Amino acid sequence: MRDRQAETIAPQTLSILKQHGVSFEKGFLPTSLFNWKALLTLKGFLLLVVGGFLVGFGTRYAGGCTSGHGITGLSMLQWPSLIAVASFFIAGILSANYLLPLVLNL
């Protein structure tokens, strides 16, 4: 039987994450980052607590979640939803390419 993770996560992505010290024991959740022991480190605190706060703050500030703006708002042709969805994409690209590598290398 084939490894399900190898079929769904691109090999290039796995190698980049391994370079940053992120490994997957099983499934899609890297237990090296998301566990109670990691929460007490600076990296874990930034990823879990600060990241969770920023998601909640962004949802409140944008007037809804990504799904609400992306599905409902865009289907109703709402201009603020288009701006919000574009902002989500830009922030996601910047975070994944610049902020996440900084945090993973702490």
What would your notes on this structure say?
It is a single chain. This protein is an all-alpha fold and 106 residues long. The protein folds into 2 domains: 1-32, no CATH class; 42-106, no CATH class. It has 6 helices and no strands. The protein has helices at residues 4-8, 11-19, 36-39, 42-62, 66-75, 79-104. Helix 5 runs antiparallel to helix 6. It is globular.
TL;DR of this structure?
By secondary structure, the protein is an all-alpha fold. Helix content is 71%, strand content 0%.
| Overall average residue pLDDT | 83
Q: What percent strand? A: under 5%
Roughly how many Å is the radius of gyration?
17 Å
Distance between the termini: 37 Å
Which geometry do the CA atoms define? globular
Domain module tally:
2
> Class by helix and strand content?
mainly alpha
**What letter string, H or E per element, gives the SSE order?**
HHHHHH
Topology diagram in text:
Blueprint: H1 4-8, H2 11-19, H3 36-39, H4 42-62, H5 66-75, H6 79-104
Helix pairs in contact: 5-6
Q: What keyword list fits this structure?
A:
single chain, 71% helix, 2 domains, 106 residues
